[in-house]
Amino acid sequence: MITKPKGTKDIYGKEAKKWQYVSKVIDEVMEKYNYNYIRVPVFESSELFHRGVGETTDIVTKETYDFTDRGGRNMTLRPEGTAGVVRSYIENKMYGDVNQPVKLYYNCPMYRYERPQAGRYRELTQFGYELIGSDDPLSDAEVISLAVNIYKILGLKGIKVNVNTLGDQESRDNYRKALIKHFKPHVNELCEDCKERLEKNPLRILDCKVDQDKEVMKTAPKTIDYLNDESKERFEKVKEYLEIMGVEYVVDPSVVRGLDYYNHTVFEVEAKIEGFGAQNVIGGGGRYNTLVEQIGGPKTPGIGFAAGFDRLMLALEYEKVNIPVQTSVDLFLLYVNEDEKKYAAYLTNELRMNGFIVETDYLNRSLKAGFKQADRLNSKFTIVLNSEDLKQNEVKIKNNKTKEEDVISLDAIIYYLDENITEEDDCSCGASEEHNCNCGDKCKCHKED
Ligand code: HAM
Fold first, then answer.
1. Coil, strand or helix: which one is 268?
2. First and final CA of the chain: distance in angstroms?
3. CATH fold label, 13-168+228-318
4. Fold identical between 13-168+228-318 and 331-446?
5. What is the pLDDT of residues 359-404, one digit of tens each?
6. Which end of the chain is more exposed for a tag (fewer CB within 10 A), N or C?
C-alpha cells in the first residue's frame, strides 16, 4: 500500500467540515478588517527564502524542501508565507497602490522538514496576514488584536499573548553584542547549533529548544534593557493602543522569534494544549521594517502574523469547542423503476439549483435500504417517486421528524420545502443539533457565554 509521506495528514470527513467552517470564519473576520485574500506559489526560487527568512535560521539551514527543476533552477517549497507575499508585493508594485497600507491574508500549506510529532508537521497549514506600508504603532496593535479576536470568535478561551520588542536596528545591534559577550565564556555549555549561532545569529540561541533550560539561558540579557529611547517610546505606544482595545497581553522578554526579518514588535500566542510542549505556540508574528528592501523593493515597513491552522484545530478540540458541521440533508429522493429514476435525476438537479441539499440513491437500493440511507443522512424530508403519482403530477413527501406525509403537486415542491425547512429546524450555521454555537446571533442555538 502506498501511504502518505511522513509528517503529512489527510483531512477528510467531519474533520474536513470543521476545517472548512474555521476557514469560513477566518474569511469573514478578514473581510471585516479589510484584508484581501492573496494566493502565491507553493514554490519560489530558493534565493527568496535565503534572503528573506535568513541564511542562519533553522528553517533555511535545516528545514526547507529544496529541489532543482528540470531547467536547473534552485527552487524551494515555501516554509512560510511572509517572504512570498512580500515578493508579490514588490513584483506587482503594490507599493504604488492608492490604498495604503496594503493588507493581505492567506490560508495555505507550508513545508518544513521537521521531526514530525503531535502538532508539528512537514506539511503544515498556516493562515496569516501582512500589513505592509505602515510603521504606525496602531498597526502593530491591530495585527495583535486581530489574532486575539479570531481565536476569541472561534471560541478558544485559554490563550496567552506574549509581546516583546527587539527595537530598531541600533537597539538590536547593541543587544546582539550583549548576547555574544554573555554567551562567549559559556560556549562549551551550548549545543552544537548554538555554538555556530553565537557569532552569526546570537538571538537565535534564546530560541533554542535544546538549551532552553540551561542556567546560562536564564541569566541572558533581556532585549528590553538594550532599547534606545525611540524604540522604548514606540513600544509604549503599541502597549497603550493594545490596552485601549482591551487586548490582554504579557510582556515576555524571551520572545525573540526564530526568523531573521523581525525588528520592533514581536509576539506569540500560546494555547493550553496539554502535553504539547513548544507546540502550544499556535501563532507568531512581528514587524519587519527592512524585509521589503532586503528582497529588492523600496524601503517599506511591514508587520504580520501567521497561525498554525493544525495547532488551532487541536486547541479547539482540546477545549472541546463545538464546531458546527453540516449533519443533515433537506431531502432524499427514492425511486423503484427506471422512469422514476430518470425523474429523480431531473428533480435532484432542479432542487439543488434552487439551493436545497438533496440526495438520491446511486446504488439501486431496495426501498427499505433507501429509507435506511435517508435516515443515516439525517434527511429532513423523503419523497418516494412513484410512476402513478407522477402521472397525476404529484408526489408524497414525508417529514421525517413528525412522520407526517403530504401530497403535493410537482410544481409546489420548491415552495413546500421553502415553507417547511425553517430556521427552527436547522441552525443557520448548518448544525442540526442543539449546541454551543459561535456562529453569530442569527443562529437559534447561539448562547451567550
Ligand atoms: P512561525 O513562527 O515560523 O512564523 O510560524 C507561525 C506558526 O505556524 C507557529 O506559531 C506554529 O503555530 C505554526 N507552525 C510552524 N511550524 C509548524 C509545524 N512544523 N507544524 C505545525 N505548525 C507549525 C512564520 O511563519 C511567520 N511567517 C509569521 C509572520 C507573518 N511574521 C510576520 N508575518
1. strand
2. 48
3. BirA Bifunctional Protein; domain 2 (3.30.930)
4. no
5. 999 999 999 999 999 999 999 999 999 999 999 999 999 999 999 9
6. N
